[in-house]
Task: inverse folding
């Protein structure tokens, strides 16, 4: 079998533009999902079963079903309802890009909520009691004590979620988006050289995960600098 | 209630196929995971490198890409190999075989780390005692280390199996008639995408719940030698 380097070099610009879409999807969904997960995680630790129930059902559904099902449910499924097609949101939900983004946000938010919940529950009780003893309000207690500590506890687990999201974003190609995988599949449909093109795409993914992990380690070291030996 | 318009049994066939590919992937993945852990802890540099390369590459690639590479990539290689033996036709793996290999390979990469941690948690004195009794290395591994490692590995492996179950949906992309593919077929007839994709989601959720219960039994089984604990 002859290995065709030429096709790799020729498809590189397209693959790189696909990686930009992949990165965009991952960053935006991690950002919005991360913000949304904070209130949900706090609700999840509530002592009231009604408040606890909603995020529980939400995370159970999004963590218990495949990302592919969620994507298809939103992209193809919602069109079944007349009311959705006539709503103001339809121009948005009709677009594969927005559907993918919404689903990725909801998906990563569910996983992040669970990570953050575990972290909030792992905050030492003494810290919370001390804050209460000096008369901190509940809002201040969360802002100053619980959340900053919880972020640091949840950091290692969150790095896995980032990688999962990066790899999950490949599914955007199944709803016609031209992300890195989507681009690779389009090039293959034209050139019939699956091994070379997938090899190139795989190398880019490996490079991206490598860069993600390196950046994250720097970030983690900065946030946890108070734990480092002098 | 959800009206499946007579496609219910098709979805159940799909669920059966999902279970088949998941079980196949699990068995292959467990084998690769144990092998990977042994390689990574081997005294030989070459084996260590093979183990490290395997886990680094597979864990860095999207599962969808692994599925596509194995399905389309193997076709080229197999056709080429067949040509050397004088077979001139196009050869490819069936979607089921490609799916089992793809899922098994990615499960194995993560399982390698789980098994490695579990094996390292077995006190070294146990291996030394077995060696003092004159057991051979493979026998020490299968009689002393592995039975105890299961106990530590099963919670981690259970999580990985949940991931694997959800990844089976990716095999629909190469045409395996599992839950997702069957739903797509039903949808092309009924034009009711939400109904069927939602049913598919419910089937995945129920399988997840069953696996969680199964995992609890597996943990009890692996802990059988540990005596009762008051928790």
Result:
């Amino acid at each position: 079998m002859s290995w065709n380097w030429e096709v790799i070099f020729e498809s590189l610009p397209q693959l790189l533009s696909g990686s930009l879409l992949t990165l965009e999807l991952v960053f935006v969904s991690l950002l919005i999902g991360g913000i949304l997960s904070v209130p949900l995680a706090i609700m999840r630790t509530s002592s009231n079963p009604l408040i606890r129930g909603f995020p529980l059902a939400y995370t159970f559904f999004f963590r218990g079903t495949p990302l592919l099902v969620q994507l298809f449910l939103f992209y193809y499924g919602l069109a079944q309802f007349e009311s959705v097609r006539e709503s103001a949101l339809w121009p948005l939900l009709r677009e594969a890009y927005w559907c993918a983004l919404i689903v990725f946000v909801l998906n990563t938010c569910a996983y992040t909520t669970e990570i953050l919940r575990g972290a909030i529950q792992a905050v030492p009780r003494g810290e919370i009691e001390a804050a209460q003893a000096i008369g901190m309000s509940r809002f201040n207690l969360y802002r100053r004590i619980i959340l900053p500590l919880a972020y640091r506890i949840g950091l290692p687990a969150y790095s896995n979620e980032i990688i999962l999201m990066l790899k999950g974003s490949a599914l955007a190609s199944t709803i016609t988006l031209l992300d890195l995988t989507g681009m690779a599949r389009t090039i293959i449909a034209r050139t019939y050289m699956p091994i070379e093109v997938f090899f190139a795409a795989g190398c880019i993914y490996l490079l991206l995960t490598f860069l993600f992990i390196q950046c994250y380690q720097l970030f983690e070291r900065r946030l946890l600098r108070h734990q480092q030996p002098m | 209630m959800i009206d499946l318009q007579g496609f219910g049994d098709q979805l159940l066939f799909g669920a059966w196929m999902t279970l088949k590919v998941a079980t196949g992937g699990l068995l292959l993945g467990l084998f690769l995971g144990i092998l990977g852990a042994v390689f990574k802890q081997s005294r030989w540099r070459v084996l260590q490198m093979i183990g490290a390369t395997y886990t680094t590459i597979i864990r860095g690639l999207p599962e969808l890409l692994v599925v596509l590479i194995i399905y389309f990539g193997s076709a080229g290689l197999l056709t080429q190999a067949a040509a050397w033996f004088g077979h001139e036709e196009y050869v490819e793996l069936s979607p089921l075989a490609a799916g089992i290999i793809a899922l098994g390979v990615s499960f194995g990469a993560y399982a390698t780390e789980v098994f490695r941690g579990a094996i390292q948690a077995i006190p070294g004195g146990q291996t030394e005692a077995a060696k003092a009794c004159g057991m051979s290395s493979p026998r020490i591994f299968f009689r002393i280390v592995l039975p105890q490692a299961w106990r530590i590995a099963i919670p981690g492996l259970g999580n990985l199996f949940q991931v694997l179950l959800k990844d089976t949906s990716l095999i629909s992309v190469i045409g395996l008639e599992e839950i997702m593919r069957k739903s797509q077929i039903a949808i092309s007839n009924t034009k009711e995408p939400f109904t069927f994709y939602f049913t598919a989601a419910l089937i995945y959720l129920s399988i997840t719940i069953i696996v969680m219960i199964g995992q609890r039994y597996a943990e009890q089984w692996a802990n059988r030698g540990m005596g009762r604990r008051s928790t």
